[in-house]
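Here we describe the complex-level prediction in full. Unlike the single-chain runs in Section 2.1, the two entities below were treated as one system.
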Amino acid sequence: MEQYKGTGQTRTLGRPVHILGRGSVAGAKEGRGPLGACFDYVDGDDRMGQDSWERAESRMQALALDRAVERAGREPELLFAGDLLNQCVASGYAARGRGTPFLGLYGACSTLGEGLCLGAMAVDGGFARCVAAVSSSHFCTAERQYRNPLEYGGQRTPTAQWTVTGSGAVVLGREGTGPRITHCTPGRVVDLGITDANNMGAAMAPAAADTILAHLRDTGRGPEDYDRIFTGDLGRLGGRLLGELLGREGVRLGERYGDCGGLIFDGAEQDVHCGGSGCGCCALVLTGYVLPRLESGRWRRVLFCPTGALHSPTALQQGESIPGICHALVLEGGE
Amino acid sequence: MEQYKGTGQTRTLGRPVHILGRGSVAGAKEGRGPLGACFDYVDGDDRMGQDSWERAESRMQALALDRAVERAGREPELLFAGDLLNQCVASGYAARGRGTPFLGLYGACSTLGEGLCLGAMAVDGGFARCVAAVSSSHFCTAERQYRNPLEYGGQRTPTAQWTVTGSGAVVLGREGTGPRITHCTPGRVVDLGITDANNMGAAMAPAAADTILAHLRDTGRGPEDYDRIFTGDLGRLGGRLLGELLGREGVRLGERYGDCGGLIFDGAEQDVHCGGSGCGCCALVLTGYVLPRLESGRWRRVLFCPTGALHSPTALQQGESIPGICHALVLEGGE
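The structure predicted for the assembly as a whole is:
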C-alpha cells in the first residue's frame, strides 16, 4: 500500500514537485504598479488586441501559459485552469485548440492555489510528468459581471478592492532544479456572515486564518519557519482582520506577512482603496515576484495562501452571505 | 521513482479505487421518468423546502452527499464539487459548514466525471483515504441563467434539451468491495464551431468522440470490451452525431451505447425534445442506475463519459462558438 500523505488538512508530497516554468501577463495599471517591472508582458490598453474584454482575458491566459511552457521547455500533460467569469470562459476558450487534457476549476481568487495543489498531487501521484496551472482576472470583465456596468461610474466604497487585470501560469514537473512545492493544505469553506460584496477582505480573512492555523498545526511549524507568508488578496482591511483572528490563537505573523492585494498596487498613488483582488492578483505576484526570489535564493521558504470569496451576484441578491476559502502551499527555494 | 501511470490521455490507477457510497436526489419530473424509482429521494415540487431555486439546488447537493457518506460509513477528507450556476454557488453553499477541504470544479455537465477523475487520482496518489465528488443542476436555476426567464414561456426548439433537476454524489476510497474505477481519460477542449445554445448535443459530440477514441487507442480496447458505454448528456441528436463521428474512424458502439440524457426522461411522454442535460443528469444516472447494476453484477465493465459545453451567455452574445469537453472513466463491478 502506498504511503498516506495526509496529516489533518495538510498533504506532504512524497517528493517535492518542481516549478519548471512561470509566465506573467499584466494589464496597464498593474504595469505602473510597484511590481510592474517583474512581469513578462504588460499590455498598454488591457485589450490584448482583442475586440472584447473577455477575449482579452482569454488571450492573457494563453500568453502566460505559452511563456511558462517555453521556460519549462516541455508541454504539460494536464492543464488546471480557472477564472472569475461566469462558466469560467476565460479558461475554456484559452484552452481550446491547445490539445492538453483540461480540468476546469472554480475557486474564485484562490483558483491558482487550487490548481497548484491539484497539479502537484497529480505529478506526485504519477499521473503526469508535467502539468500546468493558470488563472486570470480582468478589471473590466469582473466589474461589470460582479458589480455595475463600468459606464455607471459608481463611487467605490472605502473597503472595495480593485480587480487585477492579468494572468499567471506555472508549469510543474517531477525533475528540476527550480523552486519546489513540498506541502499543500487545501482549505475549507468558511463563512462568518459578511454580506457586503465590496468588502471581500473581511469575507475571506476567516478562511485564511482557518487554513493557516490548520497548516501550522498539521506541520508543527510556526510562522518563524517561513521567510515570507503571503495571503492571496485580503487587501489592507482583510490583512488586519487576519492578524486579529490569528492573534486570538496566539499566532503572530509579524513582518514576514504580506498580501498579494497589497503588493501589486501602490496604495498611496493608485487609488485602489483596500488593494488588488481577482484570480490574476496572486497569480501575478507569485509568478512575477515570489518565484524569482525563491529562484535567486533570497528566500528559502514561503507559505503562499491564495484566498477566494465563493459568492455570486445572484446569491447576494437573495440575501446570502459570502463564504471564503483559502488554500496554502509551501514553496521552497531551488536546490 | 513512482511509476508513471499515463498512456496518451489515459491514466491507469495503480490499484483500483472503490466506490464506497452513492447518493441521488431528484426533482419531480425526473421522479416521474423511467428511472424515477432508482433515486434515493424525489422532491415533490423541486423546492426542497427552500425559498429560492438556487438554495433548493444547494440543498439537493448537501442531501445527496449526506446519503453517499452515510452509505460509505466514513467522512471524506477532500470534496470535489461543481455545478452550472455562476461562480458554482450551489456547491460552495452546500459545502459551507461541512468542514471538508473543498476543491471547486467547473466542467459544465461533465463536472462529476472531472470530480471522479481527480478524486480517484487523489486516493491513488495517497493524498486521501476517502474523497467525495458531487454535482447538481436545477431546471429553474439553469434556464433563467442560460436562456430566458421561466415566465417568458418561450417556444423550445427541436434540438433543445431539458436541464435535469437533481444531484448525485459518490464517495471513493482505497479499500472496499463495491464497484471500482480502474482508468480515467481526462478530455481536451474541442470546438467544431456550433453557436446555437439550444443545440448542446451537437456542440459536445465532437468532444465525446475525441475522448472515446483517445481512450480506446490508449488502452488498446474496443467497444466490445465494455458491457455498456454511456455519454453524459448528448441527447438524441448529439448521440446520433457521436455515432457518425466514431463511424468515420471505424468505431461502432452498437447496442451497448446509451446516453444519460436519453435515459432519464421518457422521450415520447415527457416533452423534453432531445433529452435531459445538466450536471445533475449524468450524476443521477450514474448514482441511481449505473452503479447499482455494477454492484449487482449485471454489468462487469462500463465506460462512463460525461460531457460538458464550456460556453456562457456572455460569450455567445459576443459571437463565440461552444467548446465541448468529455472525461471518460472505466467502472468495473465489485469483487
